[in-house]
Sequence to fold (110 residues):
Amino acid sequence: MKMTAEEGIDEKLAKWNQIFDELALDAGDLIRDIRDMINYVFFSAMLLTLMGVSAVAIAVGRQLEPKYLAMSVIVFSVMAGNASLLVGKWLKLRARYNNLSGLEKKLDSG
Fold:
């Protein structure tokens, strides 16, 4: 038996309602998880920057040959470039999901 378009839409809506019901039950946890994931992006950016700075500091501290210093600067540049992309992503995500923090506070107080 072939399903009509209206029956197909009703079935999809029922599935989406089931998903939203589950999300409503775990909304506080979901909001905290999203916030933690967004903060992890920033932490990763800072870690990359620290690794790049460390590469240069080791080369300078050990007074390595200029070619090794140049390689450490290249490593730093690549790491800093990736870190800047991550910070940009972090800022976008933080702005996009900033209102979730307010919703979480309402859930906790309500």
Remarks:
- The CA atoms of residues 33 and 84 lie 23 Å apart.
